[in-house]
């Protein structure tokens, strides 16, 4: 999202989005005006001069569906259209208050969007690491815990009248291209990882303890309501004159199913998310927010969404002005979006044009009724109408608590990736280091650490703060560049000063990388290099430093640092993403060995020339041989890289041993079931029954099990991320090189061993989306590899008989 194309002066285009707030004058006051915490409160109706018993929507003995229908049926057409934009105006005559739908909680409660604000009562909220670093932990329980803590703070702020209950987060777009400016918001390039992140973070935000397994999902209580965005095939913001407001993503059905839709399907089906946001772009000529197949046909009908579909802000206006969809007729554009399944407009097109559209016969009033009922059922599940005693006690003490700040530190520690460690330079011995030279534009980073869609942090700890706080250490700091862009004329002098500081220090910590001035919403990169003179800064400081040089990269997207990887004077390299408000402390803990890094890269770090080989506008994941375009992501790119997806080192060593695995899967099709055709590179690979459609298989009855013993054979306690990859049977045309099918992060003490067991659904782990977009399980020998370098491997023979 919420690009907020025109609304509120397009605040997101400001370089430091964390500092962007719409101010109290933009706030929509709701229940806090009445000094009550929910709508159907007797005293509230008395103040309004209304008899609450006359309103069936306040009768808690009725189903949410009936109550929502009663509420909608009481509204006039004019009143209805005023409730279907992000700022719902309310209707005083029936006791319905205003409500602001737009709040954000990407990695903590944000002040982006008018639904949330900070002041003297709530001066800040915990700002966790940006999503790309949290994803690098490959720790599903961490992802869920962060969601739980964020929703606790959100609910506390709601009780204090400073926030809403509906949060348009997380961003679950797959990173297709390394230039994309919004990589920091996402869980990376693997659709399976992205989907699992979505499922866990959404569950953390939404789930009310004890109701997770409720059978009636349409009435299951919600702690807060979350939203998976931006649907779909959205991963270009502004690149060489092409922007998201005009871009037509030309996507094959194979790529759509395999990559772009999979995380959203997991978010809806497994996460039970209560909202999905459609994106600005077109897909194959149709704006996503007006595509009935994508919205009603897929999200609502096929995946069975229990909630509402919302537009990215001003998306209907973008349809008209950017895509020239349906000419310049606002009523037609709004009607098309509504009938396609768009329930809520973040913007004013619905409120301004839907009444006229109904009166002109372009859309049915009952279509508005349907969408309003979806919206009000979500608010009822949140306790907006009846209250929720489980959360009424939450208040100021539950925001920025010590427990939450510690989780922010832990999340940063778990995500940090060790990329290089010559001579076991790290961890540093705290007793042997007396002087530390900190250099580089991120040495005293603050706002850069919390990225975008951030609120006001509780307590920022910069790298300089953390290292300066260590007792009996002499710490110096030189920027080396005036800013991250590092292109000023006086950089030579700043670099020289940094060199001088490194000459006398026991160790030099070089903090370089990117920030929102280089990669951000509405700002894609054009290259994969360090900005400006940062490379010169690194090389010159490394050449003159007395002690070991540790290079620390803050970025979301990969950077071609081959020069540093090959420089013997740079002993160690850490990637720290954008590590949140406690990032400085987390970095210090890793550098001095209080924490052993175990993060893995969630995106491929390509060599710089990669972006010269294909335009960002080419959506295909597989190589395009006719144009000499390489493949995208680790699944389809087989060229050389700076660092591959899943890469990460540790201060200790781990050894794997296969304990057991399913070796064979025999599937017999019934008479009414049929084999599917799969294309082969050579007839010698062809199977008698090449494949079966997964929709005709009993997947639950054919679980594949895999158990591996992981031993810590090194000198230090540490965490290992066990990555399990599958390779399709040999000879199938156009399939992935390999794909991640499972992972688990485990902590193992030095000398200890832990068995890790995986139970794999063959229809999700060993399937392929073949070129005509059938989802099939192919016959043949599937290879299973553990670890990025196939530390150990095994095979699964799939035999399908007719």
Summarize this structure as a short list of keywords or feature phrases.
802 residues, alpha/beta, 6-stranded mixed sheet, 5-stranded mixed sheet
Question: In whole angstroms, how far apart are the ends?
Answer: 48 Å
**Percentage beta strand:** 15-25%
Uncertain stretches of 5 or more adjacent residues = 6-29
Helix content: 25-40%
Oligomer state equals: single chain
What is the number of helical segments per DSSP (H or I, 4+ residues)?
Answer: 22
Number of E-state strands: 30
Radius of gyration: 27 Å
Pfam families: Fn3-like (PF14310), Glyco_hydro_3 (PF00933), Glyco_hydro_3_C (PF01915)
InterPro entries: BXL, Fn3-like, GH, Glyco_hydro_3_C, Glyco_hydro_3_C_sf, Glyco_hydro_3_N, Glyco_hydro_3_N_sf, Ig-like_fold
Protein name: Beta-xylosidase/alpha-L-arabinofuranosidase 1-like
Keywords: Glycosidase, Hydrolase, Signal
């Amino acid at each position: 999202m919420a690009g907020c194309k025109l609304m509120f002066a397009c605040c997101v285009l400001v370089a430091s989005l964390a500092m962007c707030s719409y101010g109290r004058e933009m706030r929509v006051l709701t229940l806090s005006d009445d000094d009550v915490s929910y709508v159907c409160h007797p005293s509230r109706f008395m103040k309004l001069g209304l008899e609450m018993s006359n309103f069936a929507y306040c009768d808690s003995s009725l189903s949410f569906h009936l109550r929502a229908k009663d509420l909608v049926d009481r509204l006039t057409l004019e009143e209805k259209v005023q409730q279907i934009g992000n700022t719902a105006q309310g209707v005083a005559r029936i006791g319905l208050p205003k409500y602001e739908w737009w709040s954000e909680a990407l990695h903590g409660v944000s002040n982006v969007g008018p639904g949330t604000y900070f002041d003297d009562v709530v001066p800040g909220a915990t700002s966790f690491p940006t999503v790309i670093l949290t994803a690098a932990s490959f720790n599903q329980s961490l992802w869920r815990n962060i969601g739980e803590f964020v929703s606790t703070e959100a609910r506390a702020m709601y009780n204090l009248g400073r926030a809403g209950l509906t949060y348009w987060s997380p961003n679950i777009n797959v990173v297709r291209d390394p230039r994309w400016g919004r990589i920091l918001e996402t869980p990376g390039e693997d659709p399976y990882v992205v989907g699992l992140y979505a499922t866990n973070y959404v569950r953390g935000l939404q789930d009310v303890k004890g109701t997770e397994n409720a059978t009636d999902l349409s009435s299951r209580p919600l702690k807060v309501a979350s939203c998976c965005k931006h649907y779909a095939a959205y991963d270009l913001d502004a690149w060489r004159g092409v922007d998201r407001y005009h871009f037509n993503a030309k996507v094959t059905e194979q790529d759509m199913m395999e990559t772009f839709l999979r995380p959203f399907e997991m978010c809806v089906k497994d996460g039970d998310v209560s909202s999905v946001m459609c994106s600005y772009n077109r897909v194959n000529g149709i704006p996503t927010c007006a595509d009935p197949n994508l919205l009603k046909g897929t999200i609502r009908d096929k995946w069975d969404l229990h909630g509402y579909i919302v537009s990215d802000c001003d998306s209907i206006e973008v349809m008209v002005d950017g895509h020239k969809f349906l000419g310049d007729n606002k009523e037609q554009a709004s009607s098309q979006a509504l009938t396609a399944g768009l329930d809520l407009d973040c913007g004013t097109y619905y409120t301004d044009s839907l009444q006229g559209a109904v009166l002109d016969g372009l859309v049915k009033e009952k279509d508005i009724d349907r969408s309003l009922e979806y919206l009000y059922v979500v608010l009822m599940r949140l306790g907006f109408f009846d209250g929720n005693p489980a959360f009424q006690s939450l208040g100021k003490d539950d925001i920025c608590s010590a427990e939450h700040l510690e989780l922010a530190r832990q999340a940063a520690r778990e995500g940090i990736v060790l990329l290089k460690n010559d001579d076991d330079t790290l961890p540093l011995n705290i007793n042997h280091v007396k002087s530390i030279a900190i250099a580089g534009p991120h040495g005293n980073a603050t706002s850069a650490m919390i990225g975008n869609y951030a609120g006001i942090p509780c307590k920022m700890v910069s790298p300089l703060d953390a290292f300066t706080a260590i007792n009996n250490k002499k710490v110096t700091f030189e920027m080396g560049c005036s800013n991250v862009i590092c292109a000023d004329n006086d950089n030579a002098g700043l670099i020289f000063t940094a060199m001088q500081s490194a000459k006398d220090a026991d160790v030099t910590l070089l903090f370089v990388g990117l920030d929102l001035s280089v990669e951000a919403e509405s700002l894609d990169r054009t290259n994969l290099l360090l900005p400006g003179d940062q490379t010169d800064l690194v090389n010159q400081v490394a050449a003159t430093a007395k002690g070991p040089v540790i290079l620390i990269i803050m970025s979301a997207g990969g950077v071609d640092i081959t020069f540093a990887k090959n420089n013997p004077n740079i002993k160690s390299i850490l990637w720290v993403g954008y590590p949140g408000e406690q990032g400085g402390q987390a970095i210090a803990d890793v550098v001095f060995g209080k924490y052993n890094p175990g993060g893995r890269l969630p995106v491929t770090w390509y060599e710089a020339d990669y972006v010269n080989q294909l335009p960002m506008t080419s959506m295909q994941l597989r190589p395009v041989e006719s144009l000499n375009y390489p493949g995208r992501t680790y699944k389809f790119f087989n060229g050389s890289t700076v660092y591959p997806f899943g890469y990460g080192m540790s201060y200790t060593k781990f050894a794997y041993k296969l304990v057991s695995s399913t070796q064979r899967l025999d599937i017999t099709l019934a008479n009414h079931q049929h084999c599917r055709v799969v294309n082969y590179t050579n007839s010698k690979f062809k199977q008698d029954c090449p494949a079966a459609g997964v929709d005709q298989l009993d997947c639950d009855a054919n679980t594949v099990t895999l158990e591996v013993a992981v031993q810590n054979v090194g000198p230090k306690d540490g965490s290992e991320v066990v990555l399990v990859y599958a390779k399709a049977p040999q000879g199938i045309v156009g399939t992935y090189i390999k794909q991640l099918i499972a992972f688990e992060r485990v902590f193992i003490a030095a000398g200890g061993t832990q068995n890790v067991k995986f139970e794999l659904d063959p229809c999700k782990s060993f399937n392929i989306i073949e070129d005509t977009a059938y989802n099939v399980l192919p016959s043949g020998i599937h290879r299973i590899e553990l670890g990025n370098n196939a530390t150990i491997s095994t095979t699964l023979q799939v035999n399908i008989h007719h």
